[in-house]
């Protein structure tokens, strides 16, 4: 009996120990399970969001440029290809992202992208069925350009929203990780220090790469685009994201360098243009003509010529500004033509017709003078008899048209094509025309056109089309 009692007592003690262990283990295990579930859930959310960001980062950054260019080529008849595949790729990407996106803002952005892709396809199909060039061009400018811009904007907005959600998840992760660390420390003081070291190791493997990437993004925002090694991490998404950040910094650095080189080139063009316009022969011949007018008693004409010369150089200098108004450019070429008319009164007359509505429009200075000078020396002078130069400016919504026409010698088709090639290739033998074309292209890009037409024996016409809605100011770097 006593043996039974001992056994019963032993079982009772053991039972209490088991119950005590269970009482300790169940709450600890429960808390561990809850913490683990919280962290696991947010890690899954984080992985999903970072995966979405990686996928969205694969969106073609030149989507608008390429779609607009291909559609322009199609509308202008230079190509028969419509970029259906590019639109389909954007739609497929948006559908894929929509399936894995939980944030309302991100889903709204992707729904908008899908809707815009449908509209874009509809407008592209409409353009394909449209016969009239003007109607095609109107649809291109009104519909296609705007929609491609919106698609890009929504894709970038999606990245912004997902990045914000990732940051929110990261904050939650930081909170739960901090809570876990405190709890684990308390438990590990009782259980074993090995668990603590393991927890710290796991937490650092998650937080350190993110902190490092956050620091790198801050450096890029501060202007540090120097090449750096991507963050080392076992997480494939984080590794890919870090590599993407470094690629982005590298591309930004290259683009900044290219822009700097372009500005240097443009300044060099402007300097050469100024040197070309301050022509000692032009000044000598003008002063010689003034002296001749005084000698023959035509003092009023001499006085007018001096006034025109003064006005010419005043507008030429334009207070050191690179950008002038159409009215200032008109005054500049009028002074220039008045001087030249005295010198070439037997062969030249001119007319300037600028719509007052566009006189406040701004453009690079000395845009029109090279065209007028070309008309005099290569159009009227080689032709026998009197000719005329017409400078016209008008608004054709939404664009502005500036046109210089002469009734001079004109050119054969082969000569005209050769001149166009020289201008497009920036040949210095046609420096005046090339400088005007180059500066306008850098300022307006493909929104600007520079067209030369000529007929042998009838004359030459040079037309410039610039977008009327583009606003530039005196601070624009040229």
Keywords for this entry:
478 residues, alpha+beta, Four Helix Bundle (Hemerythrin (Met), subunit A), Heat Shock Protein 90, two-stranded antiparallel sheet, elongated, disordered C terminus
Helical fraction equals: 55-70%
CATH homology superfamily name of the largest domain: Histidine kinase-like ATPase, C-terminal domain
Q: Reading side by side through the largest sheet, how are the strands ordered? A: 2-4-5-7-6
Structural class: alpha+beta
Which descriptor suits the 3D outline? elongated
What is the succession of H and E elements? HHHHHHHHHEHEEHEEHHEE
The number of helical segments is 13
- The CA-CA distance between the termini, in Å, is 109 Å
Cα-atom Rg, whole angstroms? 36 Å
Sheet bearing the most strands, described?
A: 5 strands, mixed
Tell me the count of domains: 2
Mean pLDDT: 77
CATH architecture label name of the largest domain = 2-Layer Sandwich
Tell me what portion of residues adopts beta-strand conformation.
5-15%
- What is the CATH topology of the largest domain? Heat Shock Protein 90
Please tally the β strands and state the result.
Answer: 7
* Overall CATH class of the largest domain: Alpha Beta
Unreliable stretches: 1-17, 474-478
Polypeptide structure, described:
The termini are far apart. The longest helix is centred in the middle third of the chain and has 58 residues, at 133-190. Mean pLDDT is 77; it is low at 1-17 and 474-478. It is built from 13 helices and seven strands. The chain has helices at residues 2-57, 63-75, 84-99, 104-129, 133-190, 193-221, 236-277, 280-295, 299-317, 326-343, 369-380, 413-424, 431-444, and strands spanning 323-325, 348-354, 362-364, 387-396, 399-406, 449-455, 459-467. It has two domains: 9-191, Up-down Bundle (Four Helix Bundle (Hemerythrin (Met), subunit A)), CATH 1.20.120; 278-467, Histidine kinase-like ATPase, C-terminal domain (Heat Shock Protein 90). Strand 6 and strand 7 form a beta hairpin. A five-stranded mixed sheet has the order 2-4-5-7-6. The protein has a two-stranded antiparallel ribbon with strand order 1-3. The chain is an alpha+beta fold and 478 residues long.
């Amino acid at each position: 009996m006593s043996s039974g009692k001992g056994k019963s007592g032993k079982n009772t003690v053991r039972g209490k120990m088991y119950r005590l262990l269970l009482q300790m283990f169940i709450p600890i295990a429960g808390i561990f399970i809850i913490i683990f579930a919280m962290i696991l859930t947010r890690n899954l959310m984080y992985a999903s969001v970072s995966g979405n960001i990686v996928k969205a980062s694969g969106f073609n950054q030149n989507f608008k440029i390429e779609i607009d260019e291909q559609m322009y080529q199609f509308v202008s008849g230079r190509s028969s290809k419509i970029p259906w595949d590019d639109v389909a790729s954007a739609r497929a990407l948006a559908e894929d992202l929509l399936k894995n996106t939980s944030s309302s803002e991100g889903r709204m952005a992707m729904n908008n992208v899908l809707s815009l892709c449908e509209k874009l396809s509809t407008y592209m199909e409409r353009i394909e069925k449209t016969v009239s060039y003007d109607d095609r061009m109107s649809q291109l400018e009104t519909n296609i350009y705007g929609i491609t811009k919106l698609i890009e904007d929504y894709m970038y907005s999606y990245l912004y929203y997902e990045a914000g959600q990732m940051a929110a998840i990261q904050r939650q992760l930081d909170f739960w990780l901090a809570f876990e660390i405190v709890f684990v420390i308390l438990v590990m003081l009782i259980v074993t220090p090995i668990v603590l070291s393991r927890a710290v190791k796991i937490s650092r493997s998650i937080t350190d790469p993110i902190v490092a990437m956050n620091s790198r993004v801050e450096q890029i925002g501060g202007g540090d685009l120097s090449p750096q090694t991507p963050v080392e991490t076992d997480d494939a998404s984080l590794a890919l994201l870090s590599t993407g950040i470094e690629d982005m910094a590298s591309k930004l650095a290259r683009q900044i360098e290219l822009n700097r080189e372009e500005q240097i080139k443009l300044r060099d063009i402007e300097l050469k243009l100024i040197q070309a316009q301050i022509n000692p022969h032009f000044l000598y011949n003008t002063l010689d003509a003034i002296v001749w007018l005084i000698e023959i008693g035509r003092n009023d004409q001499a006085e007018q010529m001096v006034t025109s010369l003064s006005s010419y150089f005043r507008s030429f200098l334009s207070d050191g500004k690179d950008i002038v108004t159409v009215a200032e450019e008109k005054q500049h070429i009028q002074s220039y033509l008045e001087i030249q008319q005295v010198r070439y009164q037997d062969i030249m007359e001119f007319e300037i017709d600028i719509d007052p509505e566009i006189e406040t429009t701004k453009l690079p200075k000395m845009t029109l003078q090279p065209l007028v000078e070309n008309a005099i020396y290569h159009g009227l002078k080689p032709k026998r008899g009197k000719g005329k130069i017409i400078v016209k400016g008008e608004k054709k919504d939404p664009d502005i048209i500036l046109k210089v026409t002469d009734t001079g010698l004109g050119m054969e088709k082969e000569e005209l094509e050769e001149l166009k090639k020289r201008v497009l290739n920036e040949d210095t033998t046609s420096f005046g025309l090339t400088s005007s074309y180059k500066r306008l292209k850098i300022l307006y890009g493909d929104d600007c056109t520079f067209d030369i037409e000529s007929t042998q024996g009838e004359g030459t016409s040079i037309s410039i089309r610039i977008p009327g809605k583009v606003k530039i100011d005196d601070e624009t770097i040229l």
